[in-house]
Amino acid sequence: MQPYELTLAAAAEEIRTRRLSPVELVDSVLDRIARTEPSLQAYVTVTAERARESARAAERATAASAPASASHGPLHGIPVALKDLIDVAGLATTASSRVREAHPTADADSTVAARLAAAGTALVGKTHTHEFAYGLTTPQTSNAWDPDRVAGGSSGGSAVAVAAAAATFALGTDTGGSIRVPAALNGVVGLKPTYGLVPRHGVTSLSWSLDHVGPLTRTVEDAALVMSVLAGHDPRDPASLPTPSSVDYRPLPGADLRGVRVGVPRNYYFEHVDPDVELAVRGAVEQLRALGATLVDVEIPMTRYIQATQWGLMVPEATAYHERTLRSAPERYGADIRVLLEAGALMSAGDYLRAQRARTLMRRAWLRMLDEVDVVAAPTVPVTAVRADQEAVVWPDGTSESVSDAYVRLSAPADITGVPALSVPVGRDGAGMPIGMQLLGRPLGEATVLRVGHAYEESVPARGYAPVTTPAGPRGDAL
Protein backbone atom coordinates (compact mmCIF):
# COMPACT_ATOMS: atom_id res chain seq x y z
CA MET A 1 0.00 0.00 0.00
CA GLN A 2 1.25 3.46 -0.92
CA PRO A 3 1.13 6.22 1.73
CA TYR A 4 -1.41 8.25 -0.29
CA GLU A 5 -3.84 5.35 0.01
CA LEU A 6 -4.03 5.65 3.82
CA THR A 7 -7.03 7.14 5.54
CA LEU A 8 -6.37 10.01 7.91
CA ALA A 9 -6.70 7.78 10.97
CA ALA A 10 -4.38 5.13 9.52
CA ALA A 11 -1.81 7.72 8.42
CA ALA A 12 -1.90 9.35 11.86
CA GLU A 13 -1.16 6.01 13.51
CA GLU A 14 1.70 5.31 11.12
CA ILE A 15 3.21 8.71 11.87
CA ARG A 16 2.67 8.38 15.61
CA THR A 17 4.49 5.05 15.72
CA ARG A 18 7.20 6.34 13.32
CA ARG A 19 6.54 3.71 10.68
CA LEU A 20 5.89 6.58 8.25
CA SER A 21 7.32 10.06 8.18
CA PRO A 22 5.19 13.13 7.30
CA VAL A 23 7.65 13.85 4.48
CA GLU A 24 7.05 10.43 2.94
CA LEU A 25 3.30 10.90 3.20
CA VAL A 26 3.31 14.38 1.67
CA ASP A 27 5.62 13.33 -1.16
CA SER A 28 3.35 10.38 -1.91
CA VAL A 29 0.24 12.60 -2.03
CA LEU A 30 2.01 15.18 -4.23
CA ASP A 31 3.01 12.41 -6.64
CA ARG A 32 -0.60 11.26 -6.68
CA ILE A 33 -1.77 14.82 -7.45
CA ALA A 34 0.68 15.02 -10.36
CA ARG A 35 -0.77 11.83 -11.80
CA THR A 36 -4.48 12.57 -11.30
CA GLU A 37 -4.66 16.28 -12.09
CA PRO A 38 -4.41 15.99 -15.87
CA SER A 39 -7.74 14.15 -15.95
CA LEU A 40 -9.51 15.55 -12.89
CA GLN A 41 -8.53 19.23 -12.49
CA ALA A 42 -9.43 19.28 -8.80
CA TYR A 43 -6.86 21.92 -7.86
CA VAL A 44 -6.64 25.65 -8.54
CA THR A 45 -3.06 25.59 -7.25
CA VAL A 46 -0.76 22.98 -5.75
CA THR A 47 1.41 24.26 -2.89
CA ALA A 48 4.08 21.59 -3.10
CA GLU A 49 6.98 23.40 -1.45
CA ARG A 50 4.79 24.80 1.33
CA ALA A 51 3.53 21.26 1.99
CA ARG A 52 7.04 19.86 2.12
CA GLU A 53 8.17 22.58 4.52
CA SER A 54 5.24 21.76 6.81
CA ALA A 55 6.02 18.05 6.55
CA ARG A 56 9.65 18.62 7.47
CA ALA A 57 8.58 20.70 10.48
CA ALA A 58 6.16 17.93 11.53
CA GLU A 59 8.91 15.34 11.14
CA ARG A 60 11.26 17.36 13.34
CA ALA A 61 8.57 17.72 15.99
CA THR A 62 7.89 13.98 15.89
CA ALA A 63 11.58 13.18 16.22
CA ALA A 64 11.84 15.45 19.26
CA SER A 65 9.02 13.67 21.11
CA ALA A 66 9.10 10.34 22.90
CA PRO A 67 8.55 7.26 20.71
CA ALA A 68 4.86 6.52 20.11
CA SER A 69 4.03 9.72 21.98
CA ALA A 70 0.50 11.07 21.80
CA SER A 71 1.67 14.63 22.39
CA HIS A 72 0.87 15.54 18.79
CA GLY A 73 -2.71 15.36 17.58
CA PRO A 74 -3.94 13.02 14.83
CA LEU A 75 -3.73 15.73 12.15
CA HIS A 76 0.01 16.16 12.72
CA GLY A 77 1.80 15.85 9.37
CA ILE A 78 -1.39 15.06 7.42
CA PRO A 79 -1.85 16.48 3.87
CA VAL A 80 -4.94 18.68 3.48
CA ALA A 81 -6.57 20.55 0.59
CA LEU A 82 -8.72 23.63 1.10
CA LYS A 83 -11.57 24.86 -1.06
CA ASP A 84 -10.45 28.08 -2.69
CA LEU A 85 -12.89 30.20 -0.72
CA ILE A 86 -10.76 29.73 2.40
CA ASP A 87 -8.05 32.31 3.08
CA VAL A 88 -4.49 31.13 3.61
CA ALA A 89 -1.87 33.77 4.32
CA GLY A 90 0.35 34.36 1.29
CA LEU A 91 -2.03 32.68 -1.18
CA ALA A 92 -4.73 34.19 -3.37
CA THR A 93 -8.34 33.19 -2.75
CA THR A 94 -9.67 32.97 -6.31
CA ALA A 95 -13.14 31.48 -5.71
CA SER A 96 -12.52 29.91 -9.15
CA SER A 97 -13.62 33.17 -10.75
CA ARG A 98 -12.17 35.63 -13.29
CA VAL A 99 -13.47 38.36 -10.99
CA ARG A 100 -10.48 37.64 -8.76
CA GLU A 101 -7.79 37.24 -11.40
CA ALA A 102 -5.88 40.16 -9.89
CA HIS A 103 -6.98 39.48 -6.32
CA PRO A 104 -4.21 40.10 -3.77
CA THR A 105 -2.93 37.29 -1.61
CA ALA A 106 -4.51 36.90 1.81
CA ASP A 107 -2.80 38.76 4.64
CA ALA A 108 -3.85 36.23 7.28
CA ASP A 109 -5.16 32.72 7.68
CA SER A 110 -8.87 32.08 8.04
CA THR A 111 -9.82 30.61 11.40
CA VAL A 112 -10.06 27.08 10.01
CA ALA A 113 -6.74 27.34 8.14
CA ALA A 114 -5.06 28.63 11.30
CA ARG A 115 -6.49 25.77 13.37
CA LEU A 116 -5.34 23.18 10.86
CA ALA A 117 -1.88 24.73 10.71
CA ALA A 118 -1.65 24.72 14.50
CA ALA A 119 -2.60 21.01 14.41
CA GLY A 120 0.41 20.35 12.19
CA THR A 121 -1.27 19.70 8.83
CA ALA A 122 0.51 20.15 5.49
CA LEU A 123 -1.42 22.19 2.91
CA VAL A 124 -1.01 20.56 -0.49
CA GLY A 125 -3.24 22.97 -2.41
CA LYS A 126 -6.40 24.99 -2.97
CA THR A 127 -9.27 23.22 -4.74
CA HIS A 128 -11.77 24.33 -7.33
CA THR A 129 -15.27 25.48 -6.45
CA HIS A 130 -18.21 26.27 -8.66
CA GLU A 131 -17.64 30.00 -9.20
CA PHE A 132 -18.07 31.76 -5.84
CA ALA A 133 -19.75 28.53 -4.62
CA TYR A 134 -22.88 29.49 -6.56
CA GLY A 135 -23.67 26.15 -8.20
CA LEU A 136 -23.89 22.40 -7.74
CA THR A 137 -21.62 20.98 -10.48
CA THR A 138 -18.08 22.56 -10.37
CA PRO A 139 -17.69 22.48 -14.18
CA GLN A 140 -13.88 22.86 -14.12
CA THR A 141 -13.50 19.52 -12.32
CA SER A 142 -14.30 15.96 -13.43
CA ASN A 143 -15.92 13.29 -11.30
CA ALA A 144 -13.33 11.00 -9.72
CA TRP A 145 -15.15 7.88 -10.92
CA ASP A 146 -16.00 9.02 -14.46
CA PRO A 147 -14.39 12.11 -16.04
CA ASP A 148 -17.38 12.54 -18.34
CA ARG A 149 -19.67 13.19 -15.36
CA VAL A 150 -20.06 16.16 -13.04
CA ALA A 151 -18.07 16.37 -9.84
CA GLY A 152 -20.91 17.96 -7.92
CA GLY A 153 -20.54 21.25 -6.17
CA SER A 154 -19.77 23.63 -5.08
CA SER A 155 -16.95 21.86 -3.19
CA GLY A 156 -16.29 19.62 -6.18
CA GLY A 157 -12.52 20.01 -6.17
CA SER A 158 -12.24 19.04 -2.51
CA ALA A 159 -14.45 15.97 -2.91
CA VAL A 160 -12.66 14.79 -6.04
CA ALA A 161 -9.22 15.27 -4.46
CA VAL A 162 -10.22 13.10 -1.49
CA ALA A 163 -11.96 10.50 -3.67
CA ALA A 164 -8.89 10.20 -5.91
CA ALA A 165 -6.52 9.96 -2.91
CA ALA A 166 -4.99 13.26 -4.07
CA ALA A 167 -5.52 14.64 -0.56
CA THR A 168 -5.83 12.79 2.73
CA PHE A 169 -8.69 15.10 3.67
CA ALA A 170 -10.10 18.43 2.55
CA LEU A 171 -12.37 21.25 3.64
CA GLY A 172 -15.39 22.53 1.78
CA THR A 173 -18.29 24.87 2.36
CA ASP A 174 -22.00 24.07 2.35
CA THR A 175 -24.77 26.61 1.69
CA GLY A 176 -27.34 24.41 -0.05
CA GLY A 177 -25.54 21.08 -0.04
CA SER A 178 -22.10 21.99 -1.36
CA ILE A 179 -20.20 19.56 0.89
CA ARG A 180 -22.68 16.70 0.86
CA VAL A 181 -23.61 16.75 -2.84
CA PRO A 182 -20.05 16.26 -4.19
CA ALA A 183 -19.32 13.85 -1.34
CA ALA A 184 -22.24 11.68 -2.45
CA LEU A 185 -21.39 11.93 -6.15
CA ASN A 186 -17.74 10.96 -5.56
CA GLY A 187 -18.18 8.27 -2.89
CA VAL A 188 -16.62 10.06 0.09
CA VAL A 189 -17.82 11.27 3.47
CA GLY A 190 -18.97 14.86 3.84
CA LEU A 191 -20.10 16.59 7.03
CA LYS A 192 -22.05 19.84 7.20
CA PRO A 193 -21.84 20.78 10.89
CA THR A 194 -24.41 22.66 12.95
CA TYR A 195 -24.66 26.28 11.81
CA GLY A 196 -22.14 28.32 13.80
CA LEU A 197 -20.14 25.37 15.15
CA VAL A 198 -17.19 25.91 12.78
CA PRO A 199 -16.16 29.57 12.39
CA ARG A 200 -16.27 31.15 8.92
CA HIS A 201 -13.94 34.08 9.55
CA GLY A 202 -11.71 34.45 6.48
CA VAL A 203 -13.99 32.38 4.23
CA THR A 204 -15.57 33.99 1.16
CA SER A 205 -19.31 34.12 1.68
CA LEU A 206 -22.08 32.99 -0.60
CA SER A 207 -24.98 33.50 1.80
CA TRP A 208 -24.01 34.52 5.32
CA SER A 209 -27.09 33.03 7.02
CA LEU A 210 -26.68 29.66 5.29
CA ASP A 211 -22.89 29.19 4.93
CA HIS A 212 -21.11 26.35 6.76
CA VAL A 213 -17.54 24.99 6.68
CA GLY A 214 -16.86 21.29 7.11
CA PRO A 215 -14.66 18.30 6.22
CA LEU A 216 -14.60 15.88 3.30
CA THR A 217 -12.86 12.62 4.17
CA ARG A 218 -12.66 8.98 3.19
CA THR A 219 -14.20 7.70 6.44
CA VAL A 220 -16.54 8.89 9.16
CA GLU A 221 -13.79 8.42 11.73
CA ASP A 222 -11.61 10.80 9.72
CA ALA A 223 -14.38 13.41 9.67
CA ALA A 224 -14.64 13.17 13.45
CA LEU A 225 -10.89 13.70 13.83
CA VAL A 226 -11.05 16.85 11.70
CA MET A 227 -14.09 18.19 13.54
CA SER A 228 -12.26 17.93 16.84
CA VAL A 229 -9.82 20.53 15.47
CA LEU A 230 -12.24 22.78 13.57
CA ALA A 231 -15.07 23.25 16.06
CA GLY A 232 -15.04 26.02 18.63
CA HIS A 233 -16.07 29.62 19.15
CA ASP A 234 -14.49 32.55 17.31
CA PRO A 235 -15.90 36.02 18.09
CA ARG A 236 -14.85 37.26 14.63
CA ASP A 237 -17.72 35.24 13.15
CA PRO A 238 -20.98 36.83 14.40
CA ALA A 239 -22.78 33.50 14.00
CA SER A 240 -20.17 31.49 15.90
CA LEU A 241 -21.70 29.51 18.74
CA PRO A 242 -20.32 29.76 22.30
CA THR A 243 -19.26 26.12 22.32
CA PRO A 244 -16.26 24.47 24.02
CA SER A 245 -13.08 24.84 21.97
CA SER A 246 -11.97 21.23 22.48
CA VAL A 247 -14.44 18.38 21.92
CA ASP A 248 -13.50 14.84 20.93
CA TYR A 249 -16.00 13.80 18.25
CA ARG A 250 -14.49 10.38 17.63
CA PRO A 251 -17.13 7.62 17.86
CA LEU A 252 -16.37 4.61 20.00
CA PRO A 253 -15.31 1.42 18.20
CA GLY A 254 -18.01 -1.04 17.31
CA ALA A 255 -21.29 -1.02 15.45
CA ASP A 256 -23.87 -1.28 18.24
CA LEU A 257 -26.82 1.08 17.65
CA ARG A 258 -29.17 -0.28 20.30
CA GLY A 259 -31.25 2.53 21.73
CA VAL A 260 -30.77 4.80 18.70
CA ARG A 261 -33.97 5.94 16.96
CA VAL A 262 -33.58 6.46 13.21
CA GLY A 263 -36.26 8.48 11.48
CA VAL A 264 -37.28 7.25 8.02
CA PRO A 265 -39.13 9.94 6.01
CA ARG A 266 -42.49 8.93 4.64
CA ASN A 267 -42.63 12.07 2.47
CA TYR A 268 -40.33 14.33 0.47
CA TYR A 269 -36.94 12.54 0.67
CA PHE A 270 -37.95 9.48 -1.36
CA GLU A 271 -40.10 11.37 -3.89
CA HIS A 272 -38.62 11.75 -7.39
CA VAL A 273 -35.58 9.66 -6.50
CA ASP A 274 -33.76 7.30 -8.86
CA PRO A 275 -34.65 3.65 -8.12
CA ASP A 276 -30.99 2.68 -7.64
CA VAL A 277 -30.56 5.48 -5.11
CA GLU A 278 -33.70 4.55 -3.20
CA LEU A 279 -32.77 0.86 -3.14
CA ALA A 280 -29.28 1.55 -1.81
CA VAL A 281 -30.42 4.00 0.86
CA ARG A 282 -33.29 1.82 2.07
CA GLY A 283 -30.86 -1.08 2.22
CA ALA A 284 -28.50 1.01 4.34
CA VAL A 285 -31.38 1.96 6.64
CA GLU A 286 -32.17 -1.73 7.08
CA GLN A 287 -28.52 -2.26 7.96
CA LEU A 288 -28.90 0.33 10.73
CA ARG A 289 -31.87 -1.70 12.00
CA ALA A 290 -29.71 -4.85 11.92
CA LEU A 291 -27.17 -3.01 14.09
CA GLY A 292 -29.82 -2.43 16.75
CA ALA A 293 -31.40 0.88 15.76
CA THR A 294 -35.15 1.37 15.99
CA LEU A 295 -36.74 2.69 12.80
CA VAL A 296 -39.42 5.35 13.20
CA ASP A 297 -41.54 6.79 10.39
CA VAL A 298 -41.35 10.59 10.36
CA GLU A 299 -43.19 13.34 8.49
CA ILE A 300 -40.89 16.01 7.07
CA PRO A 301 -42.54 19.36 7.86
CA MET A 302 -43.21 22.33 5.57
CA THR A 303 -41.79 20.66 2.47
CA ARG A 304 -43.69 22.90 0.03
CA TYR A 305 -41.69 25.89 1.32
CA ILE A 306 -38.17 24.42 1.12
CA GLN A 307 -37.16 25.60 -2.35
CA ALA A 308 -38.69 29.06 -1.99
CA THR A 309 -37.07 29.55 1.40
CA GLN A 310 -33.64 28.39 0.21
CA TRP A 311 -33.63 30.69 -2.79
CA GLY A 312 -35.34 33.51 -0.90
CA LEU A 313 -32.46 33.58 1.57
CA MET A 314 -29.50 32.73 -0.64
CA VAL A 315 -30.14 34.85 -3.72
CA PRO A 316 -30.46 38.31 -2.12
CA GLU A 317 -27.63 37.64 0.33
CA ALA A 318 -25.32 36.58 -2.50
CA THR A 319 -26.26 39.63 -4.54
CA ALA A 320 -25.57 41.92 -1.59
CA TYR A 321 -22.10 40.41 -1.20
CA HIS A 322 -21.28 40.92 -4.91
CA GLU A 323 -23.03 44.27 -5.34
CA ARG A 324 -19.89 46.32 -5.98
CA THR A 325 -18.13 43.98 -8.40
CA LEU A 326 -21.38 43.16 -10.19
CA ARG A 327 -21.58 46.86 -11.07
CA SER A 328 -17.91 47.39 -11.88
CA ALA A 329 -17.02 44.17 -13.70
CA PRO A 330 -20.16 42.18 -14.62
CA GLU A 331 -18.46 40.68 -17.68
CA ARG A 332 -16.00 38.81 -15.47
CA TYR A 333 -18.70 36.57 -14.00
CA GLY A 334 -19.75 33.37 -15.70
CA ALA A 335 -23.11 33.72 -17.44
CA ASP A 336 -24.91 31.38 -15.02
CA ILE A 337 -23.62 33.24 -11.95
CA ARG A 338 -24.28 36.69 -13.38
CA VAL A 339 -27.93 35.82 -14.06
CA LEU A 340 -28.43 34.66 -10.48
CA LEU A 341 -26.75 37.76 -9.04
CA GLU A 342 -28.81 40.08 -11.22
CA ALA A 343 -31.98 38.22 -10.24
CA GLY A 344 -31.18 38.87 -6.60
CA ALA A 345 -31.33 42.61 -7.20
CA LEU A 346 -34.97 42.22 -8.24
CA MET A 347 -36.08 40.57 -5.00
CA SER A 348 -37.87 42.79 -2.52
CA ALA A 349 -37.10 43.22 1.16
CA GLY A 350 -40.52 41.73 1.84
CA ASP A 351 -39.62 38.54 -0.01
CA TYR A 352 -36.42 38.23 2.00
CA LEU A 353 -38.20 38.78 5.30
CA ARG A 354 -40.83 36.20 4.40
CA ALA A 355 -38.05 33.71 3.68
CA GLN A 356 -36.49 34.45 7.08
CA ARG A 357 -39.85 33.96 8.77
CA ALA A 358 -40.39 30.67 6.91
CA ARG A 359 -36.93 29.52 8.00
CA THR A 360 -37.77 30.23 11.65
CA LEU A 361 -41.01 28.26 11.42
CA MET A 362 -39.29 25.41 9.56
CA ARG A 363 -36.53 25.19 12.14
CA ARG A 364 -39.06 24.99 14.97
CA ALA A 365 -40.97 22.25 13.14
CA TRP A 366 -37.78 20.28 12.50
CA LEU A 367 -36.78 20.51 16.16
CA ARG A 368 -40.17 19.08 17.15
CA MET A 369 -39.69 16.24 14.66
CA LEU A 370 -36.17 15.56 15.97
CA ASP A 371 -37.54 15.28 19.50
CA GLU A 372 -38.94 11.92 18.36
CA VAL A 373 -35.77 10.51 16.79
CA ASP A 374 -32.00 10.76 17.15
CA VAL A 375 -31.24 11.03 13.43
CA VAL A 376 -33.13 11.07 10.14
CA ALA A 377 -31.78 8.84 7.36
CA ALA A 378 -32.45 9.78 3.73
CA PRO A 379 -30.82 10.02 0.30
CA THR A 380 -28.22 12.79 -0.01
CA VAL A 381 -29.13 13.47 -3.64
CA PRO A 382 -31.95 12.00 -5.74
CA VAL A 383 -29.73 10.94 -8.65
CA THR A 384 -26.07 10.02 -9.05
CA ALA A 385 -23.56 12.07 -11.05
CA VAL A 386 -25.03 13.02 -14.41
CA ARG A 387 -23.05 13.56 -17.58
CA ALA A 388 -21.40 16.94 -17.87
CA ASP A 389 -23.60 18.06 -20.77
CA GLN A 390 -26.88 17.08 -19.11
CA GLU A 391 -29.00 20.08 -18.13
CA ALA A 392 -32.14 18.52 -16.69
CA VAL A 393 -33.45 15.44 -14.90
CA VAL A 394 -36.75 14.04 -16.23
CA TRP A 395 -38.69 11.73 -13.93
CA PRO A 396 -41.00 8.88 -15.05
CA ASP A 397 -44.13 10.97 -14.38
CA GLY A 398 -42.88 13.62 -16.85
CA THR A 399 -41.72 16.06 -14.19
CA SER A 400 -38.52 17.85 -15.16
CA GLU A 401 -36.09 19.82 -13.02
CA SER A 402 -32.68 21.33 -13.66
CA VAL A 403 -29.67 19.35 -12.51
CA SER A 404 -28.87 22.00 -9.88
CA ASP A 405 -32.44 21.99 -8.55
CA ALA A 406 -32.34 18.19 -8.33
CA TYR A 407 -29.07 18.16 -6.40
CA VAL A 408 -30.04 20.91 -3.96
CA ARG A 409 -33.55 19.61 -3.27
CA LEU A 410 -32.68 17.03 -0.60
CA SER A 411 -29.71 18.84 0.90
CA ALA A 412 -31.21 22.32 1.39
CA PRO A 413 -33.33 21.54 4.49
CA ALA A 414 -30.25 21.03 6.69
CA ASP A 415 -28.85 24.41 5.62
CA ILE A 416 -32.14 26.22 6.19
CA THR A 417 -32.60 24.69 9.65
CA GLY A 418 -28.90 24.64 10.56
CA VAL A 419 -28.93 21.01 11.74
CA PRO A 420 -25.87 18.76 11.23
CA ALA A 421 -25.93 16.47 8.20
CA LEU A 422 -23.51 13.74 7.21
CA SER A 423 -23.28 12.05 3.80
CA VAL A 424 -21.97 8.48 3.85
CA PRO A 425 -21.36 6.26 0.79
CA VAL A 426 -23.80 3.34 0.67
CA GLY A 427 -23.33 1.77 -2.73
CA ARG A 428 -23.26 2.40 -6.47
CA ASP A 429 -25.82 2.54 -9.24
CA GLY A 430 -25.93 0.37 -12.35
CA ALA A 431 -23.28 2.53 -14.03
CA GLY A 432 -20.94 2.15 -11.06
CA MET A 433 -21.46 5.70 -9.76
CA PRO A 434 -21.47 6.29 -5.99
CA ILE A 435 -24.65 6.73 -3.92
CA GLY A 436 -24.80 8.61 -0.62
CA MET A 437 -27.05 8.36 2.44
CA GLN A 438 -27.64 11.49 4.47
CA LEU A 439 -27.90 11.39 8.27
CA LEU A 440 -29.44 14.50 9.83
CA GLY A 441 -29.38 15.17 13.56
CA ARG A 442 -30.29 17.66 16.25
CA PRO A 443 -28.36 20.94 16.57
CA LEU A 444 -24.93 20.21 18.08
CA GLY A 445 -25.72 16.51 17.65
CA GLU A 446 -22.58 15.80 15.60
CA ALA A 447 -21.45 13.07 18.00
CA THR A 448 -24.67 11.10 17.42
CA VAL A 449 -24.67 11.63 13.65
CA LEU A 450 -21.04 10.50 13.47
CA ARG A 451 -21.76 7.51 15.72
CA VAL A 452 -24.51 6.26 13.41
CA GLY A 453 -22.46 6.87 10.28
CA HIS A 454 -19.44 5.16 11.80
CA ALA A 455 -21.49 2.14 12.87
CA TYR A 456 -22.80 1.71 9.33
CA GLU A 457 -19.30 2.12 7.94
CA GLU A 458 -17.87 -0.47 10.35
CA SER A 459 -20.46 -3.02 9.24
CA VAL A 460 -19.90 -2.84 5.48
CA PRO A 461 -16.86 -3.83 3.42
CA ALA A 462 -14.07 -1.28 3.36
CA ARG A 463 -14.01 1.12 0.42
CA GLY A 464 -10.98 2.22 -1.53
CA TYR A 465 -10.38 5.31 -3.58
CA ALA A 466 -11.53 6.06 -7.12
CA PRO A 467 -9.59 4.13 -9.79
CA VAL A 468 -8.45 7.22 -11.68
CA THR A 469 -6.37 6.67 -14.79
CA THR A 470 -2.97 8.08 -13.87
CA PRO A 471 -0.52 8.53 -16.71
CA ALA A 472 3.04 9.18 -15.66
CA GLY A 473 3.55 12.84 -14.91
CA PRO A 474 5.90 15.26 -13.18
CA ARG A 475 6.33 15.39 -9.45
CA GLY A 476 4.07 17.66 -7.44
CA ASP A 477 6.56 20.51 -7.24
CA ALA A 478 6.46 20.84 -11.02
CA LEU A 479 2.77 21.64 -11.04
TrEMBL record:
Sample GO molecular function, one term: transferase activity
Domain Amidase residue range list: 24-450
InterPro entries: Amidase, Amidase_CS, Amidase_dom, AS_sf
Pfam families, sorted: Amidase
Alphabetic keyword roster: Transferase
Name of this protein: Asp-tRNA(Asn)/Glu-tRNA(Gln) amidotransferase GatCAB subunit A
Lineage per the UniProt record: Bacteria, Bacillati, Actinomycetota, Actinomycetes, Kitasatosporales
